Amino acid sequence: MEKVTVVFWDVQHGNAVYIRTPNNRHIVLDLGTGSYGKNNLEFSPLLHLKREWRVTQLDYVNITHPHLDHIDDILNFDKLSPKVLRRPKHLTKEEIMKDVREEDKPKFEKYFEINERYKYPVLPEDDPSNPDNYGGLMIKRFSPTKCSTSNINNHSIIEIISFAGKKIVFTGDNEECSFNELLEKPVFRDTIKNADILLA
Fold first, then answer.
1. What would you report as the CA-atom Rg of the chain, rounded to the nearest whole angstrom?
2. How would you classify the pairing of strands 158-163 and 138-142?
3. Per residue in 91-128, pLDDT tens?
4. Of 21, 45, 94, 108, which residue is the least packed, with the fewest Cβ within 10 Å?
5. Residue 59 DSSP class
6. How far apart are CA 150 and CA 101, in angstroms?
7. How far is CA 43 from CA 9, 32, 148, in A?
8. DSSP line for 3-14
9. What is the pTM for the complete model shown?
10. Taking a C-beta distance cutoff of 8 angstroms, is the pair 152, 67 a contact?
């Protein structure tokens, strides 16, 4: 029986999700770190995938928005050589770096370096929007853009995955402004309708 595996990593304040598709493709949504369960602030979901689950390459990574709690594991990004990266491309370096602490700057510099590398078109056989590439897993995304960039939570990519009649909505850190923007769109309302799981 074909199935999708979804792991919601326990990474404290931030977010990190792993998805394995029916055809054994590997997806990561956000790069938070840490573990409440083991009281381990250094726990890396990416290294766990590599060392414990023998994942050698990620097919698709979505960084919903570049706040520290969503990119904390980014220094391990290249160890899994992701094929496809999505992130809010319209945000400027100045907007992202506002209020970033000095000790966190290396992670953001890595984010910008990766952002520059992943600027080429996605190969058709790797396109996450085509369910045929991901074993029938449907992946839809919505990107709010109209709210003030003084709060980049409101520029998080929202992703919806569905398979075998089940649907999960991943919201990033969107707040009222961006939800109001997206809820004006009938296609967004239809896509999130009757979701089984909401990751808020």
1. 16
2. antiparallel
3. 999 999 999 999 999 999 999 999 999 999 999 999 99
4. 94
5. S
6. 16
7. 10, 9, 33
8. --EEEE---TTS
9. 0.95
10. yes
